[in-house]
């Protein structure tokens, strides 16, 4: 890393890195070769799509299959893969292949990028991340290609299998199913267990985090030996998936799943719960969901996946820490304990900050968009949280928005991917606060 790079903080390096990736993607998507009709795409729409792909969101202003050419789709898929793994992870992997020395500053930046707790062993972890990604995406692509080949020609089936496997694993939500009907996603596969299960597994595996992979690979299925982070991640993930599915099953009776076989109703509910955790696909019409289901989906999208993963949101651990903190306060306990371990005060402060920043940005974005457009506030909130959580689910209003609203969502997607805390800290630079404490005084709370 050159001197100019080292003058940047690690958070600034991450923030600038994603800006450069988005800029490159925007330039390529503007070109006529990127569209089926061979026309220039407006800079705002190209920027929106490049940001959505790089930040593994999935919100679109044009149907991916119908608007973009194979070249444009390949650009989008490349941005998804880079954004999902993180450009630092890919950069370090190539440095390993070229046998370049990886310095402490680069290791620290990589640690910040993938949100790992320690620098030690991080290069070995990068190797596991790349190998694991190739294995899971490759396996998913093979199964999906086989399934698609039953209704498509082989070459197209393989292409569709690879595209959707990468998109699912990276929790991106981009799809090519618009060939039948624009913005239809996987609604025609709502009862297909093979496609649904493969996509759900890829979404879950990609969304639990690289640190969790490593812990499970070391300790196998011995839950008691897992690190506290892994235990919390797996427990909260399971509760959100099955709890969310049960509620969606109840809320959508008499609505989107009415008249379907029971097994398909269960499958649609499970898929809806899993995809809301930042994947962005859908097997039922998202715009037709009941208000109860929309609000539930907003909550699931806001929580998102887990730290150090391809997912967005405030993260499962943040959600768990805040619940434990509230519970401890209600019981007037000094310590916050979970799984027979005490949470560090720093984790509680960071969780509170992440929650507050994301909530503030989401509320402000809703106010901006509802002021500009006459759109139902629930649908706007749905779209905003989908962008902030890098989910990509949409009630269909994205393509109706003006440029100000689009730029608002672009900013949210960007903050959602780099991390709201990381973005905020990047503005601080190298400034070091003086170790001085002001006099304390009590105020009334509540």
Which helices and strands occur, and which strands form pairs?
Blueprint: H1 3-7, H2 10-30, H3 43-54, H4 64-67, H5 70-85, H6 87-97, H7 104-114, H8 122-148, H9 154-169, H10 193-207, H11 210-219, H12 228-251, H13 262-275, H14 291-303, H15 316-330, E1 337-338, E2 341-342, H16 345-372, H17 377-388, H18 403-418, H19 420-426
Antiparallel strand pairs: 1-2
Question: What does this protein look like?
Answer:
There is one protein chain. This protein has 446 residues and is mostly helical. The chain has one domain. Helix content is 62%, strand content 1%. The protein is built from 19 helices and 2 strands. A two-stranded antiparallel sheet has the order 1-2. Strand 1 and strand 2 form a beta hairpin. Helix 3 packs parallel to helix 18 and helix 16 runs antiparallel to helix 18. It starts with a helix and ends in a 20-residue tail after the last helix.
Summarize, please.
Helix content is 62%, strand content 1%. It is an all-alpha fold. Pfam families: TrkH.
What characteristics describe this protein?
disordered N terminus; two-stranded antiparallel sheet; transport; 1% strand; 446 residues; mainly alpha; potassium:chloride symporter activity; single chain; transmembrane helix
Straight-line N-to-C gap: 49 Å
Q: Give the strand content.
A: under 5%
Number of domains: 1
Shape: globular
Low confidence ranges:
1-5
- Side by side, the strands of the main sheet go 1-2
Q: Percent helix among the residues?
A: 55-70%
Mean pLDDT metric: 88
Structural class by helix and strand composition? mainly alpha
Radius of gyration: 22 Å
| Major β-sheet profile | 2 strands, antiparallel
What's the multimeric state?
A: single chain
SSE string: HHHHHHHHHHHHHHHEEHHHH
Figure out the total of helices: 19
By DSSP, the count of extended strands is: 2
